[in-house]
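8-amino-7-oxononanoate synthase
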Amino acid sequence: MPVSEAWLQRLASARQQRVDHQRWRHRQVNTLGTLDFAGNDYLGLAHNPRVQAAQAEGARRFGAGAGASHLVSGHLEVHDALEDALAEWTGRQRALLFSTGYMANLGVLQALADSNTAIFQDRLNHASLLDGAVLSGARSRRFHHRDSADLERLLARSSAPHKLVVSDGVFSMDGDVADIATLAHVSQQHNAWLMIDDAHGLGVLGANGSGCVEGFDSQAVPILVGTLGKALGTAGAFVAGDAALIEHLIQFARSYIYTTAQPPSIAAATLEALAIVQREPEHRQRLQRHISYFRQQAQALGLPLADSHTPIQPLLLGNEPRTMAWAAKLAQRGIHVGAIRPPTVPNGAARLRITLSARHKPEDIDRLIEGLSACQREEAACPA
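Structure:
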């Protein structure tokens, strides 16, 4: 058999397995007019005119692309200004830009961990954190979700010279929040560093919008990762911490060293978005009102909501065909929600991942609630 045929058969086999389990994914083109309850633009800043204008001006001033990696000639003054602003916002000495959140997590774990390191991860951590641990070559253990006693048990049994505890800040599929204080205490008790990926908390949580780590310094949380493409509405990511950490990453994080720097227009737009987050709490306050209103209305219908008080509001339907049917019925009404199935979530935990934004209007939420109510009524009329 020709080599190409063998490869094509392998691809066809993998496809057929997914199709047989009704888990083959399809991209959707999100058209104008569709009501989006699936994205992560929590503060609506991706559509903010000032952020858009800053991006356009950044492109005119600095060019459409950086043209090289940060260590060659791609680190421009706008990147430097953004790193300084992010460090100040998060209360850290330094910050370092990465092109994506995935690359940030891969880079940190690959640069810090090796075969003499033990990594302890929350069982529901994002895929990029799990993949980064594999890339590092470290020994990796996963503790029960938000279970500090299980983490402490694993740490106490480890004889590794270096220990690293890793957790999401806000868990992307469940919307619940890590107990930062307890994680920090347990980590310090066992001489471990703590790494928090606050992708879904930055801009949303905290009195000043600086996330679930607000009030915790670099002694408590030595490694802070944040993304710019969610509440800040742009793209890219950063790592914040002490100067020694950042200098180490510049030297050893391969996903930082060997890639073109973030487009300068994105950095310019992010600077404006960050200023809005810091100076205009009304966006965050409006989002919190939306979350409260949605939960009140959904609970009145008896919908199976997860216990989340973040913009991520999972509707736990459990059954995969049921989840896909509800998503399709909402799509027919011009409402886009995330239909999340295994392997992204455990078997039996399929859900609609509904996300709220400050950009939504109360009537948008009413339209979503009516759509969910219609799904309920149709299901009751025609039970499976």
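The longest strand covers residues 162-168.
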